[in-house]
Every structure is written in C-alpha cells, then in structure tokens.
Amino acid sequence: MTRSIAIAAALLCSTAAYAEAPRVVADIAPLHSLVAKVMGDVAQPKLLIEPTASPHSYALRPSQAVALEEADIVFFTSDGLTPWITTPLETLASDALVFEVMADEANVHFEYRDSGGDHDHGHGHEDDHSDDHADDHKEDHDENHSDTHDDDHKDDHADDHVDGHGDGHEGHSDEGLDPHGWLDPENAKIWLVQIAEALAKQDPENAAKYQANAQAALVELTALMVKLTAQLEPVKGNPYLVLHDAFQYFDRRFELEFAGSIALGDASAPSPARIVKAQEILEESNAACVFTEPQQSDKLVKVAIGGTDVKIGELDATGARLLPGPDLYTSLLQGLADSFAICSKG
C-alpha cells in the first residue's frame, strides 16, 4: 500500500512538472500585454522593462536578470529599440527560445522620416496587411523562428545588428528603421499569431487555449481599429508636432497629419536652431497641437510654441500611464486616439 502511494505521488509530480506552463518574458509593456492576452489564465509572463523607463537604454535589476535566466521563451520587439539586449540574451537566456517580433518581414516597417514631416521614407508594406495577413505567414514563421532562432540568436544575431547600432547607443537616432512598430495594430495582429504559435509549440497541452485566446484578441483588435478610425476621421487633416517622432506607425495607419518634431531623437536636447526650425514648422503648418510624452518634460515644447495658442497634448507610446497586463495594449491605442481627437481638433 505504501509503495502504491509512493508510485502514485511520483507520477503525480511527474505529470505536474510536464504540465507546467512555460516561463515567458517580454521586453516592453505593449508586447507583454499581447503575450499576456494569449496566455490568458494559463500563466502570467514577466515584464522586463517598466513602461515608465526608456527601452533604448536600460539596466536590468537582479530580479529581471533572474527572469531571463529562468525563461523558456523570450519575446522582444527589436534590437533597434533595445540595442543593449543582445548581451543579456546571450549570457542569461542561452537556453530560451528567443523571438524578435519585428524581424519578420511580414511586419509593416518604416524608416525614420524626415523631422520636418516628409512621408516618403516608408517601405510600402502597410498596404499589404489585411486582417487575414497574419495567417499567410504562419508556416514560414514556425520554420524560421521556432526551431532555429533560439540557437542562431546567440551566435549570429548580435553580430548582425550590434555593429549597425554602435556601442553606447543610448537612444535611437533619426536614421534607419523606426522600431516603434507596436503602434500599428496590424503588426500586433501578426505578433498575436506568432506568440500563440510559439507558446503552442512549447506547451502543446495548452495549445488550444493559446490559439483561442489569440483569435479572440484578433477579433477585439479588429473591432477597436474600426472604432478608432471613425473617432479619428474628423482630425485626419489637422497637422500636429511632437517632441520627438515616435508615432508614425500610429499616424500612418490612421492617416493623421504629421508636421514635424522639435527634437531629432529622444537621446539629445534640440539645439536653438532646431527649436527655431520647429517654430517655423508650427507657423507654416498651422498646427493646433504639439505633443509631449510622459517620460519627457514639456519645457522644450513650451519654448517652441512661445506665446501662441497652440495646445500641448501627451502621447504615451509604452503605457507609462497604464497598468501592465492583458488590457494595456488596447488601452494604449485608445489613449493615443483620445489624445489626438482632443488636442488636434483645433
């Protein structure tokens, strides 16, 4: 009898260990939100970077380093957004499956645009992303990302990208690919499919849940896009300025009128000449609103607008004002739309 109980207990422990959900880490709050949406009640992913911090330069806390060490799967946006992340992935997450979600060519990709508002720098992918586009690349993604990326990332990925960004990159410049791809919800749709596939492969027992959660999230996101399109229709032709240009994926998707930015990037303060240029853009464009961000002071914006009646609004790209979790991403998009609708209406 005692032996039977011992065997049953051992089998129970073995089954519990097998059924344990994968330990998952995501880099920024918007991506973490999408992962949490797909995982549902199976488990909660760990967030690597607090939404109030800049993802461009970040020092991991001990608890976050431990999360990487223990991770089975790591989702990160791109090393253009977090150029420091390749070393921790190599040294701490060497046994994890690693997915760089913006690396998939199916995503909408844009180069940084001219700070004066030139819209001619896009790659032209945005017109090809219908609601069913995420399904078109599922087989390729399984082959290219799930099976190989965990090993190849450590050997090749860092060499392919770090040289392009340079050491000591503390903020993105205004050249190369713009890494803020999560602000286009069509990209988020692709990522939801990728996330569900990766989780299902790692955890087949909960595969049906992951797929069902991803499909529900896709339906929710499609409905939200319809709502936001209608909400933003009245302000589509109203020019706006930003402190620094991080929002083109959102404004291009919803056809908003970008006039220019005050700073050339988020890592350096604008020169006096740059502020004068921003003032000229304001006057020429007749913009009704200039946006700052939660992590940035509005002092430069106030200098740029001078004594004019231009309004100051706030755009939150990473969810600094929001509670991390499955609802953050849709709340983030809704918050951006609300800010544009209120401040840009003139």
Distance between the termini: 80 Å
Mean pLDDT: 81
Enter the CATH topology name of the largest domain. Rossmann fold
Q: Count of helices? A: 13
Architecture overview:
- By secondary structure, the protein is of the alpha/beta class.
- The protein folds into 2 domains: 20-227, Nitrogenase molybdenum iron protein domain (Rossmann fold, 3-Layer(aba) Sandwich), CATH 3.40.50.1980; 231-343, Nitrogenase molybdenum iron protein domain (Rossmann fold, 3-Layer(aba) Sandwich), CATH 3.40.50.1980.
- 47% of the residues lie in helices and 9% in strands.
- The chain is built from 13 helices and 8 strands.
- The strands form 2 sheets. It has a 4-stranded parallel beta sheet, sandwiched between helices.
- Strand 7, helix 12 and strand 8 form a beta-alpha-beta unit.
- The longest helix has 26 residues, at 207-232.
- The radius of gyration is 22 Å and the shape is globular.
- 44% of the residues are buried.
- Mean pLDDT is 81; it is low at 1-18 and 117-173.
Summarize this structure as a short list of keywords or feature phrases:
4-stranded parallel beta sheet, disordered N terminus, 8 strands, Rossmann fold, 346 residues, single chain, alpha/beta, 9% strand, globular
